[in-house]
Amino acid sequence: MTANQSVYDFTVKAADGTDIALEKYKGQVVLVVNVASKCGFTPQYEGLESIFEKYHDKGFSVLGFPCNQFGAQEPGNNEEIMQFCKLTYDVTFPIMSKVDVNGDKAAPVFKHLKSSIPGILGTEAIKWNFTKFLVGKNGQVIERYSPQTKPEDIAKDIEKALA
Questions:
Q1: CB atoms within 10 A of CB 68
Q2: Calpha distance 118→89 (Å, rounded)
Q3: Known catalytic residue: 39?
């Protein structure tokens, strides 16, 4: 990883298995979130969808990455996860293929996000589901938010990044 690397340098898999080059989001503000269907924070899907709808036309997107590394709270396969998101929270923002966010098998984009903005006490590890990373129009990470941070509480930062 080079110091001038951006989120746009990565390709990820969508839940349907297709490759998504993140450079397609160049010039947009993106909130990257590791999500789970059976977590105490799962109702945040509602807030994520709300901010996605509110700011999408202004150049904002949310990317959800299901992860089963925390309390086995995302046991489903990609199809089951997509169905849950659609039926339970009417999610319209992109849901990616299930990934690891920590450890040797962590998705490269999450290795980059974590090293760009370490968490509390400088640790890079993601502590739980619904950790959020706000990425600016230039592909650089602006801020990292804890799982407890509600999506609507990030709205001011999104508006600032979109300006």
A1: 18
A2: 30
A3: yes
- Which CATH class name applies to 7-162? alpha beta
What residues are paired with 29 via a beta bridge? 60
pLDDT of the residue at 141: 94
Please name the residue that has the structure tokens 């105490």: 40
What does the alpha-carbon distance between residue 83 and residue 101 come to, in Å, rounded to a whole number? 22
Which is the catalytic residue, given 22, 31, 39, 135?
A: 39
The values of phi and psi at residue 117, to 5°, are -140, 95
Residue 13: is it exposed, middle or buried by C-beta count within 10 angstroms (0-12/13-18/19+)?
A: middle
Report yes or no: 49 and 93 within 8 Å, Cβ to Cβ: yes
Q: What's the pLDDT tens digit per position in 26-49?
A: 999 999 999 999 999 999 999 999
In this prediction the pTM is 0.93
